[in-house]
Automatic annotation (TrEMBL):
Protein role: Involved in pre-mRNA splicing process. As a component of the minor spliceosome, involved in the splicing of U12-type introns in pre-mRNAs.
Region: Disordered, residue numbers: 660-680
Lineage: Eukaryota, Metazoa, Chordata, Craniata, Vertebrata
The protein's name in its UniProt record: Crooked neck-like protein 1
Stated family: Belongs to the crooked-neck family.
Length: 680
């Protein structure tokens, strides 16, 4: 027993053991001695021992075909052909599916010029294993090398009955072409494309390239009519369900070589119209090259249009709700296409209704309908279809949620162009009843104004103002209409109703329009009354300035005192105004007035009222309450405010005294500074 089980200090690996054994040559065996056979007995003894060894190896494992092949090749080396043949036959009984065994057997017979035996073996091989192409190739090659062309052709015919792969047919065709048998090659091509059995066409190789090879074979041998016929048969055979761009490209190139350019153009267009665009990239490319070589500018443009059409098709197919892509596609189609194709694309486009009933999703979509209707009216000259398009669009819109006034107005304008006024009025009336909007009212009123139907305009304005009483523009337009018609009282009543509304979107515009109306009517007292009523509602500086300018332009004798009185009232009213800039604006306007119309006394008085402009600083705070620094701003100090507040002067004197006190205290705390200053 080993007591110390600890690992040794020096470890030995398997690699070291192998290296040491090789260095010491422990595994090298001396070569066997060469034996020289000197007589027949020794030869027979050697043969007996070798055969016994081969037989023992075969007996141990019959399925190892390499033992059989070595045995047969050894017998062949001794010129014992009969024995080798017997061994091959025994091996075939064991495994007749072994391809190598058949090849070695046949090669032995051919090597020893046993032609009939070789034929017999090849015949047995192709009968037993007809799908092994190597047997057929070697059999036909042997017959051709022996000059037995008829026998080789017979083997090929037997092979073709098994409908082999493509290369086998080409080998047969090349065999016939080597002996200038063009007609036979043509017949093989026919069978190669379509195999006839029991009076029924059985498809063997329906691939397009086989038809192309057949046509090129005819073209190579200058049978151009036959080649064209092959291409035409191929196009007819595959039909429109299984179209392939390679067939049409080859057909077009053939016709191009024959200088048949119109036929080439027809072939390309026929294919492009029927093959799916994603499968026609090569077709587009070749058609473009052809047109650049032989076509005119129009043909090249057609190619470019076709390519762009394909791109747009891909875009709208990827995202049907990409309306910008539809617009580009329709613009392209409208430029050079018949009306039916354009209508088809429009129908496809408008079929992609936005999935969400929100107006922002419909804004681009609605223009598809508008463009469709305009195309039918202006390009196709089909008024009936245009009316159908408008009506279909208006039926599609969810008017309870939103509508498009543009669509209603375009439809009404179309009916007017068709001299169908009742339908236009009915459309606009329906729009106001279903979904009233400011734009619809304005459009309807504008239509009736153009038709000089003023009573209808009045009714529409009444409906409009019932719908939107806060719309100042509508009140003004209504009053202007009555003014134009000469009914001043109605216009004034409309203005009165307007300014009495509790809520208005632009009251300043309305009041200005009312005032301008009264000025035009030269009703100055009413104008003053309007200004006073407006000043009761607002003390804005522009109102005061406007009133002063009105008094100045009234053209009466007392215009200057009245104007000056207005400025006086405005100055008193603006003293309590927090916005000092407005008060400055008023005083500057007053000074301009006095400079033009006033006396020296009034000019001196207004100059005393002008404020002093001073610069100040104030502290800024950020949104979070932190210190954001300081900013400078301008402030105005009015003399009137200073006179009314006498304590301001006392406060200023107190601030000056405090500053002097601080300076004296600082000087007392630092006496050296005073000495230094006196020395300097």
């Amino acid at each position: 027993q080993v007591k110390n089980k600890a690992p040794a200090e020096v470890q030995i690996t398997a690699e070291q053991l192998l290296r040491e054994a090789k260095e010491r040559e422990l595994e090298l065996l001396p070569p066997p001695p060469q034996q020289k056979i000197t007589d027949v007995e020794e030869l027979n003894d050697y043969k007996l021992r070798k055969r016994k060894t081969f037989e023992d190896n075969i007996r141990k494992n019959r399925t190892v075909i390499s033992n059989w092949i070595k045995y047969a090749q050894w017998e062949e080396s001794l010129k014992e052909i009969q024995r080798a043949r017997s061994i091959y036959e025994r091996a075939l009984d064991v495994d007749y599916r072994n391809v190598t065994l058949w090849l070695k057997y046949a090669e032995m017979e051919m090597k020893n010029r046993q032609v009939n035996h070789a034929r017999n073996i090849w015949d047995r091989a192709i009968t037993t294993l007809p799908r092994v192409n190597q047997f057929w190739y070697k059999y036909t090659y042997m017959e051709e090398m022996l000059g037995n062309v008829a026998g080789s052709r017979q083997v090929f015919e037997r092979w073709m009955e098994w409908q082999p792969e493509e290369q086998a047919w080409h080998s047969y065709i090349n065999f016939e072409l080597r002996y200038k048998e063009v007609d036979r090659a043509r017949s093989i091509y026919e069978r190669y494309i379509l195999f006839r059995a029991l009076a029924v066409l059985v498809l063997v190789h329906p691939d397009v390239k086989n038809w192309i090879k057949y046509a090129r074979f005819e073209e190579k041998h200058s049978y151009f009519a036959h080649a064209r016929k092959v291409y035409e048969r191929a196009v007819e055979f595959f039909g429109e369900e299984h179209m392939d761009e390679h067939l049409y490209v080859a057909f077009a190139k053939f016709e191009e070589n024959q200088k048949e350019f119109e036929r080439v153009r027809v072939i390309y267009k026929y294919a492009l119209d029927r093959i799916p665009k994603q499968d026609a990239q090569n077709l587009f490319k070749n058609y473009t090259i052809f047109e650049k070589k032989f076509g005119d500018r129009r043909g090249i443009e057609d190619i470019i249009v076709s390519k762009r059409r394909f791109q747009y098709e891909e875009e709208v197919k990827a995202n049907p709700h990409n309306y910008d892509a539809w617009f580009d596609y329709l613009r392209l189609v409208e430029s050079d296409t018949d009306a039916e194709t354009v209508r088809e694309v429009y129908e496809r486009a408008i079929a992609n209704v936005p999935p969400i009933q929100e107006k922002r999703h419909w804004k681009r979509y609605i223009y598809l309908w508008i463009n469709y209707a305009l195309y039918e009216e202006l390009e196709a000259k089909a008024s009936k279809r245009t009316r159908q398009v408008y009506q279909a669009c208006l039926e599609l819109l969810p008017h309870k949620k939103f509508t498009f006034a543009k669509m209603w107005l375009l439809y009404a304008q179309f009916e007017i162009r068709q001299k169908n006024l009742p339908l236009a009025r009915r459309a606009l009336g329906t729009s106001i009843g279903k979904c009233p909007k400011n734009k619809l009212f304005k459009g309807y009123i504008e239509l009736e104004l153009q038709l000089r139907e003023f009573d209808r305009c009045r009714k529409l304005y009444e409906k409009f103002l019932e719908f939107a009483p806060e719309n100042c523009t509508s009140w003004i337009k209504f009053a202007e209409l009555e003014t134009i018609l000469g009914d001043i009282d109605r216009a004034r009543a409309i203005y009165e109703l307007a300014i009495s509304q509790p809520r208005l979107d632009m009251p300043e515009v309305l009041w200005k329009s009312y005032i301008d109306f009264e000025i035009e009517q030269e009703e100055y007292e009413k104008t003053r009354s309007l200004y006073r009523r407006l000043l009761q509602r607002t003390q804005h500086v522009k109102v005061w300035i406007s009133l002063a300018q009105f008094e100045l332009s009234a053209g009466q004798e007392e215009r200057l005192p009245r104007c000056r009185q207005v400025y006086e009232e405005a100055n008193k009213a603006m003293r309590s105004c927090e916005e000092k800039e407005e008060r400055v604006m008023l005083l500057e306007s007053w000074r301009s007035f006095e400079e033009e119309f006033g006396t020296d006394a009034t000019k001196e008085r207004i100059d005393k009222l002008m404020p002093e402009k001073i610069k100040k600083r104030r502290k800024l705070q950020a949104e979070d309450g932190s210190d954001a620094g300081w900013e400078e701003y301008y402030d105005y100090i009015f003399p009137e405010d200073t006179a009314n507040q006498p304590n301001l002067k006392l406060l200023a004197m107190a601030k000056l005294w405090k500053k002097q006190q601080q300076e004296s205290e600082a000087a007392a705390m630092d006496p050296d500074k005073d000495i230094d200053e006196s020395q300097t």
